[in-house]
Amino acid sequence: MSAFFSFSSSAKRDRDLPLPVYRALIVSLFEGAARNAANVFAYTVLGAFMMIRADDLAISLSSGLLMAASVFRATVEISCWRTISAKGADALATAEMVEAEEMRYVAAVGLFGAALTLLQGLVLVLPSGEPFRLLTIAGVLIFLVSAPARACGSPRAVVLQTSVINVGFCAAMLVTGGANAYLGIMMSLALFRHLRDTTRSLHGTMVSMLLARRRAEDVAQKLDTALNNMARGLLMIDDGKRVQVSNRIFAEMFGLPATPVGLSVRRLVGALIAPTLNGDRARAALTEFFDGEGGSEGQWRLTDGRILAFSRQIVAQGAVITVADVTAEHEAEQNIQRMARFDPVTGLANRAFLAEMLDKTIASAAGGDGFSLLSIDLDRFKEVNDAHGHHVGDLLLTQAASRMRDVIGARGFVARFGGDEFVVLLEAARRETVVKIGTALVRALSAPCKIEGKAVRIGASVGAAVFPDDAPDGKAATLLKAADMALYDAKASGRGAIKFFVEDMALSVRRRRRLGAALRDALGHNQLTLAYQPIVDIDGGRVMAVEALLRWTHPEFGSVSPAEFIPIAEEIGAIIEIGAFVLENACRDALAWPAHVRIAVNLSALQFEGGDLEATVRGALERTGLAPDRLELEITESILIGNHAAVLEKLNRLNALGVHIALDDFGTGYSSLSYLNDFNFDKVKVDQSFIRDMTSARNSKAVSIIRAVNAIGADLNMTVVAEGVETEQQLSALRALGVSGAQGYYFSRPAPAREIGVMLLKEIADRTSAKRPGEKKTA
To answer: For the chain, which has fewer Cβ within 10 Å, the N-terminal or C-terminal residue?
Structure first.
């Protein structure tokens, strides 16, 4: 029975539908409020007419009630619609709020239906209502037939209206009685069923449409979200070259205030996109891209530096164009290419890029004037790097690279070959020009550097090769090898040298490599020995000290000069072991000499960098039993360059052991007086070049320099020793200048320990003390 009175298309309550669907159903009740108000006004007129014309008080009163119910219904519907129009349907934010509006509508139409039912019943039952029966039945039928279409959004409103009216009609027919009345009841029930089915159908259709619309809106919302959250801009263009779809990203890419939907492609490109493009032909090219018929791709750079990649795909009735910002990818690709061709520390070209440029230069130099290749090695870089750390080392490499770029300018190409080695590709091939540029490079790289508050100083050696002379086979590898051999020779000649490749260098390099291999075994085969040369007190003629000098005699190479094998020992890393050998054997040999004679041992810069020099010295003294004050350690100025503070710290620790420290070869290199200020040297040895020149007319400044050094030594309580004294004239001049000590062939050539015994030292001392200025020297 309940199903008979159910006007809803579903067993579920409308309230249980999704809120937007339920809300749309109820809002539909009020959307025709104005139109319904006109219809309701007709019923008000009907009520007024019957109230005036009816003789029966009951009919008159029920007519007045219909008028009041009509006004109330119109007022409720218009009020609800105005509220919805003003605040929007979304203001009904909950199912409870929607249901409250529905109940207001149900109450209004229910009261109206009850008033109409009452009037209908009185007109049908009372004899005085006969004149109004047709008019009333017409009004009732109009109200009933329009109910499903008017109120299908709320089936309970329809069922309330139709049930009240049909029940009232059937009751009136029962009171009237007769066949006609019973037939009327049957017709009324048939109408009721028809209204129920119509309402169900309309309600079901409406719910289905709303649910479909909701699904479509959800899909559209998702699609819109997807489009507007794409990493790419998107346009869909129809066959008429007009934009049909666009996402927000596209508008943002070009700074458009809104998506360009509806615009023609020509206006979009010409007026909105073209001003952002970089390049004179960019506008025409992009217009051609948009007007194209097939699939295509292209990239355009904007005035703000961004790079956009456009892609066009043809679809039915138009084209889809996507736009991607590929600036980051482009920069990443450039960075990858830069990393593959440039050194990350200095920013210079790396070995791979150098090889590429060298091959191109060789190819273009065929039949031309040629060019030159410089191989540059930074002197003392390793000392600075070890003393201050790789961070300072990298900053130093960066400064060195910058200085080389400044010197070379547009005249060549600078590359970092690896480590502290650089290569310069010079346009110049004339030796005079190459020497001039090489000298400028050495000067620039030898200038002091200040890095993070630390003052460091390095130098450079340069090897040069000229194309095509030094690479007749036209190969880059041959030219690089030639420059490398020239660099090898430059480093062997002393720091700061510039050497050109010559054919003999190949032999020299091979010899150095063979010597290096042999030197590794020299200690084990007892090929290294010591010779000694005395240092004499000029005034007293007594030997003050003896300097230990290393000698190497090889079965194949014979006697190898220290000037040749000491740099090799440093290069191959054998100097630390050899230095320890020299130190211990010199201390042991000195035990046989008079106690006032010190033993002087030269130290290499690498002995300060590698190993524990302090432990080596202490161990040698402990094992030999030599008194520390009889040991004199000689260092050169080059040791103090670069890692100045670290060397001073080690010198202070050595000095604390009781040994003496002497500064050797003073006057060469940088001859910084700050070294004498930073450390209390016991002795300063003036380089032999000044001694050779002091008696020569071509360099009278040597005497002034020696006098100044001697004065400094006296003020600082340092013994001054002149090296390389070979003549009586030199000795007399030194004595006149007040120099304390001398060393050289004049007194003795280097000799084995057995020849520098006490007797020989006494004999040399006696012979020296017997000599005076003007006396003839005896053999």
So the answer is: C
pTM summary value? 0.49
Q: Is the pLDDT of residue 669 over 60?
A: no
**CA-to-CA dists, residue 92 to 77, 103, 355, 517, 763, angstroms:** 16, 14, 77, 96, 125
Residue 489: pLDDT band (50, 70, 90) is confident
Q: How many whole angstroms separate alpha carbon 714 and alpha carbon 251?
A: 86
**Do residues 156 and 262 share a domain?**
no
What are 714's two structure tokens? 């006296």
Q: Which element (helix H / strand E) includes 169?
A: helix 155-176
- H-helix or E-strand containing 665? strand 660-666
Token digits for 417?
Answer: 């070959």
Q: What CA–CA distance (Å, rounded) separates 60 from 50?
A: 7
Q: Are strands 741-743 and 233-238 parallel, antiparallel or unpaired?
A: unpaired
Note whether 400 and 413 are within 8 A (CB): no
Residue type, 37: A
> Could you tell me if 500 and 437 are in contact, meaning their C-beta atoms sit under 8 angstroms apart?
no
What is the span of the domain harbouring residue 244? 233-330
Specify the residue for token string 């008017």.
150
Q: Is pLDDT of 5 > 70?
A: no
All residues at 6 or more sequence positions from 717 whose CB lies less than 8 Å from its CB, including other chains: none
Using DSSP bridges, classify how beta strands 683-686 and 719-723 pair: parallel, antiparallel or unpaired. Answer: parallel
Give residue-wise pLDDT tens across range 514-541: 888 899 888 889 999 999 999 998 987 8
- pLDDT tens digit string along 727-739? 999 998 899 899 9
Q: In the predicted model, what is the mean pLDDT of the chain?
A: 85
Q: Where are the alpha helices (DSSP H) in 277-350?
A: 282-291, 327-341
User: Does one domain contain both 472 and 386?
Assistant: yes
In whole angstroms, give the CA distance from residue 601 to residue 613: 13
Our count of domains for the chain comes to: 4
Same domain, residue pair 293 and 378: no
Phi–psi pair at 127, nearest 5 degrees: -60, -35
Query: What is the spatial distance between Cα 183 and Cα 206, in angstroms, rounded to a whole number?
Result: 34
Residue 764: predicted pLDDT: 55
Percent of the chain residues past pLDDT 70, beyond the cut: 93
Contact 166, 191 (CB under 8 A): yes
Cβ–Cβ < 8 Å for 552, 579: no
**In a shared domain, residues 150 and 253:** no
pLDDT at 9 over 60: no
Per-residue pLDDT tens digits for 385-408: 877 788 888 999 999 999 999 999
Q: Give the Å distances, CA to CA, from 609 to 306, 574, 588, 645.
A: 52, 13, 25, 12
Rounded Cα–Cα distance for residues 261 and 247 (Å): 9
